[in-house]
Amino acid sequence: MAKILIAEDDALSQKFVATVIDRMGHSAFVSPNGRHAWEALCAENHFDMLITDIMMPGMDGTTLIRTIREDQRFATLPIVIMSAFIGVNEIAGLLEIGATWFMAKPVDRTTLEGYVNRAIK
To answer: How far is CA 105 from the centre of its chain?
Structure first.
């Protein structure tokens, strides 16, 4: 069983992603923004994966990814970006700074399951 952190401010997206992860037999932990997710990672630094939105209050996903990749404890943490509002250039930039994969919103269950399976094998 993997522990997966979800940084997402939209309640519907939070619930959908967490439900899929729970049904896969893993534990989902939800953070309402990047700052909260960063604090959760630092407090309990044994999450197996992070799924993060980009546009969030407090600390956005881009800042969260940069902050995570600057900390050696999280150098290999798989990070999935999910967003409906960014283009190809922005996706490429996020992958360049340390995101592992991109997932478009609305989130497709099969795509989400595939990324979770790839991250935890």
So the answer is: 13
Sign of CA dihedral 91, 97, 101, 104: negative
User: CA–CA separation, 86 vs 104, rounded Å?
Assistant: 9
- In the sheet where 27-31 sits, what is the strand order? 27-31, 3-7, 49-53, 79-83, 101-104
Does the predicted TM-score (pTM) go above 0.85? yes
Class of domain 3-120: alpha beta
101: which 2 tokens?
């994969």
Q: Where are the domains of the chain?
A: 3-120
Summarised one tens digit per residue, pLDDT across range 93-106 is 999 999 999 999 99
Task: Read off φ and ψ for residue 53, nearest 5 degrees.
Answer: -75, 165
Provide mean pLDDT across the span 34-61: 94
